[in-house]
Structure formats: C-alpha cells, structure tokens
C-alpha cells in the first residue's frame, strides 16, 4: 500500500475548502490545506463580505435624506472613503483570522503557498518545492474575474478584486458588464457620490433574473444617476495624464477615473496542473464532476465556483460539507442545485428563489402569476419615489409555488425564509392561509389573492408548434 503524508490535501482556503477540511478532520482524517493569498477566499476577502459592508455605507445617504420627513434635522453629512476602506480591512482581517483559528482547532495543517497537482495523489508547494502525497485531493480554488473585452488599453482597467482598495473614491467610474457584480457596484458608488456609467453588450441588466425585477433594478439605477450604454462596449482605453478615456462602439468616448471590468468570472484552474493529472475540464476551464463532486480521476474532487455549477458561497460551503460526509464520513451526500435562494444587493435589492416567470412558462403547461407593485409605508413620509415589487409564480395545475421574486428593502432576508416554503413544495393556498404581519411589506406575499395573469400552453394542431395563450385575470 502506498504511503501518504495526508488523507486529504485541499487546494484553496475559501469557504468551500475550509468547510471540507474542517469536516474531514472531524471524521479523523489527516488534512492539509494550501492557500496562496489570504484565508477566507473570495467571499471573505474580496467578495460578499466587503461588498455588503460597502452596500451598508452607501445606503446611509438615503437614510440621511429620508430623516427630514420623520422630523429629524440632520447636519450636512460628509463621507470618508479611507475610513470605510480601513474599517472594511479590519473586519475581513478579523474574519480571516477566525477561519485560520477554526482550521487550527480542527487539527488541519495550513500552508501558505500556491499548490499545484503533479499526479493523482501528489501536490507540489511552489513556496519551497516540497511534494506531498495525499489519498484524496480537493480542488477549491474558486473563480477569477474575466478580463473581457480584450481591447487595447485593457491593462489600465480594474476588476472587482481591485475595487475595494482604491486609494480614493472615484469621481467617475465606467463599469463594463451588467451582471450582479456590475449593478451592485454601480448602486454602491452612485450613492457614495461617484458619477457611474455602465456599458454592456446586452439590452438590459441581470440576464437570467425575472424580467420585472430586471426592469426594476435598471430603472432604480437610472433614478440614482447611473448612465447606461446598452448594446455598446469599449473598443479601446487610453491613458491621459491621470484620467482614462474609454471609446465605445457607439462612437462616443467617456473620460473617467477608472474602468472596471465586470463581465463575469471563470473557474480558477489555470496553471494548477489538472490537465497533466488527467482531470477533465470543460470549455470554460471548470472541473467536470459528478453529483458527489468527484472528477474524472477517482482521487481528485472539486467543489465551489471552480466547478461552475452554481457560483454562490453557500453552495460552495454545502458542497464542501457534502464532500467530507461522502468521502470521510461514510454518508454519501449529493447537493441539490435547485430552488436555491439568492440576493442581488443593489438598492433596492433583489431576493429570489425558484423559477422565474419565463422559466416556468417554458416548462409547465399552465402558469399563474400573482404580482404587486406598491409604495412602502416608509416612503409615505420620506417622500422617496420607490416601489416594492413582488411576484409569485405558481403551477396552475397543482397550485404549487414555483418561484418567488422580490425587489425592495430586505428582499434578501425574505428570500431566505421563502426558500424553505418553496423547497417544501408549498402551495399558493398555503400562502393564502398564512396570517399576515402588519404593517410590513412582506405581508403582501400572503395577501395577493387575485391572479394577475394565467399562461396556458395550447396545441394548435397535430403539426403546429405549441403556443402560449395569456389569460388576464
């Protein structure tokens, strides 16, 4: 029998890798984990946590403005970018230290080095050249920003990795892309006082989300002062003194302090040696895995964004835990990647779970829609022109709730609880039978009794394609 230095070697100490290492160690495995940057990964260091802190910072502007309607007289506020960045750094350092302490408590050996795969059971540490043999190797290296479009001057652009530590608050910012990273940072910086523009190849924001929510976020960003350039991308970026000039396909140019590329993320597998070891990768470089996170090589597994299944931190954590249960706990566990709640932390924010209206209509023969748009109670005194939008998507044949979508304050918090109901297969009648909490925005979810629309799939003849007939309630 071959000798192994460890039972499990984890490459990448982000959310998924740390969870897998700790749980495996709890089952008695000898575990080592290598991280080339900082313990905590994208979410803790340069993702969800620092982003949410900046979201909070940006929303105080609205709070100061709203206070007058409630009788408060507030002196003219001022904002310090440096103080925010310093506070952010202090918090992520604290969290990173907690992650490391938890690994130590679990008996996991933490190695500060980039690690690459040499073969099915061997990794090499680039810091000192050492080789370690492992029964199992787990790839948990996450994702990395896509540097598109590839245009002259791209080297002057920044990504979401860089935006948290800019030396000063940008006066003018061009964001390329219209996904969740783009719209979140556009919302943040617009409220902090930056003149923000978005350039994107598409005709709307947040592809893949429910259409009504997409439109609501777009309109809210426009109201916040964001300038959209739909169907246009930069063709080149020029450096002029301390400024950048971004030329767009429309023929215009924008003079800005920074150009931020937010056109997506891809699995961080380049240079890991996976191809040499025989690990199958897909066209994007993601590790191809089965339901139990095993790659094409029996001893090598992968979890989290590096597999490109569903790029969310809670998914990486769940996959890491399931991997450890399966391989070291004797409890085969597959993660189900459906009805996963998610949030987009724009202002107002999105909270969503389940199928969108268009997705449901593509699958089910009869789809009922219940929707509402209303002014929240707080806005009646603040005078703010804002609306809360809610939509419930229902299987018209069974009354089962297929999806719930919210745009408004605390939408993410609501989506977390709604995910329980959707996962358990709640029916619209169950929502209707639930007593409302008044006065809240969330009460609308259990008081929407009147159907907004019904979409039925009608067969128009033996050779005719299916058609969708909309029946307005």
From TrEMBL:
PROSITE patterns: PYRIDINE_REDOX_1 (PS00076)
Cofactor or coenzyme needed: FAD
FAD/NAD(P)-binding domain: residues covered: 7-320
Cofactor: binding details: Binds 1 FAD per subunit.
Binding locations of NAD(+): 177-184, 264, 305
One GO CC annotation: cytosol
Annotated Pyridine nucleotide-disulphide oxidoreductase dimerisation domain residues: 340-448
Keyword list, A-Z: Disulfide bond, FAD, Flavoprotein, NAD, NADP, Nucleotide-binding, Oxidoreductase, Redox-active center
Entry's EC annotation: 1.8.1.7
Main function: Catalyzes the reduction of glutathione disulfide (GSSG) to reduced glutathione (GSH).
Entry's family note: Belongs to the class-I pyridine nucleotide-disulfide oxidoreductase family.
Protein name (Swiss-Prot/TrEMBL): Glutathione reductase
Natural source organism: Methylocella tundrae
Lineage, highest ranks first: Bacteria, Pseudomonadati, Pseudomonadota, Alphaproteobacteria, Hyphomicrobiales
Gene (name only): gor
């Amino acid at each position: 029998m071959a000798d192994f230095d460890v039972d499990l070697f984890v490459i990448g100490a982000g959310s998924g890798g740390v969870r897998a290492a700790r749980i495996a160690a709890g089952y008695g495995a000898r575990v080592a984990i290598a991280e080339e940057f900082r313990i905590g990964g994208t979410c803790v260091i340069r993702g969800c946590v620092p982003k949410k802190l900046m979201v909070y910072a940006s929303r105080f502007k609205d709070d100061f403005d709203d206070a007058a309607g409630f009788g408060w007289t507030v002196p003219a506020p001022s904002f310090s970018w440096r103080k925010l960045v310093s506070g952010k750094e202090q918090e992520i350092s604290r969290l990173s230290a907690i992650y490391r302490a938890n690994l130590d408590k679990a008996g996991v050996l933490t190695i500060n080095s980039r690690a690459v795969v040499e073969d099915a059971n061997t990794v090499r540490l680039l810091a000192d050249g050492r080789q370690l043999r492992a029964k199992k190797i787990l790839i948990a290296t996450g994702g990395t920003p896509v540097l598109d479009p590839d245009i002259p001057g791209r080297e002057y652009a920044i990504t979401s990795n860089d935006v948290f530590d800019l030396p000063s608050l940008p006066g003018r910012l061009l964001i390329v892309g219209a996904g969740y990273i783009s719209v979140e940072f556009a919302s943040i910086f617009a409220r902090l006082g930056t003149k923000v523009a978005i350039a994107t190849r598409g005709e709307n924001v947040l592809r893949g989300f429910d259409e009504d929510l997409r439109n609501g976020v777009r309109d809210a960003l426009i109201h916040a002062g964001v300038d959209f350039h739909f169907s246009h991308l930069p063709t080149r970026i020029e450096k002029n003194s301390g400024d950048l000039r971004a030329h767009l396909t429309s023929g215009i140019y924008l003079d800005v302090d920074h150009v931020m590329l937010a056109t997506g993320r891809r699995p961080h597998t380049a240079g890991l040696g996976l191809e040499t070891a025989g690990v199958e990768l897909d066209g994007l470089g993601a590790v191809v895995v089965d339901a139990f996170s095993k790659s094409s090589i029996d001893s090598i597994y992968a979890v989290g964004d590096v597999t490109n299944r569903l790029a969310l931190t809670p998914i990486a954590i769940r996959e890491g835990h399931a991997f450890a249960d399966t391989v070291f706990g004797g409890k085969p566990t597959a993660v189900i990647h459906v009805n996963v709640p998610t949030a987009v932390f724009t202002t107002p924010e999105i909270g969503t779970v389940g199928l969108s209206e268009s997705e449901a209509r593509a699958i089910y023969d009869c789809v009922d829609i219940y929707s509402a748009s209303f002014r929240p109670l707080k806005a009646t005194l603040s005078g703010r022109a804002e609306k809360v939008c809610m939509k419930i998507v229902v299987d018209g044949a069974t009354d089962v709730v297929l999806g719930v979508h919210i745009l408004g304050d605390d939408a993410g918090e609501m989506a977390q609880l709604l995910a329980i109901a959707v996962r358990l297969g709640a029916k619209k009648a169950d929502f209707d039978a639930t007593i409302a909490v008044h006065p809240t925005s969330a009460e609308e979810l259990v008081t929407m009794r009147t159907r907004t629309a019904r979409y039925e799939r009608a067969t128009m003849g033996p050779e005719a394609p299916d058609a969708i007939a909309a029946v307005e309630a």
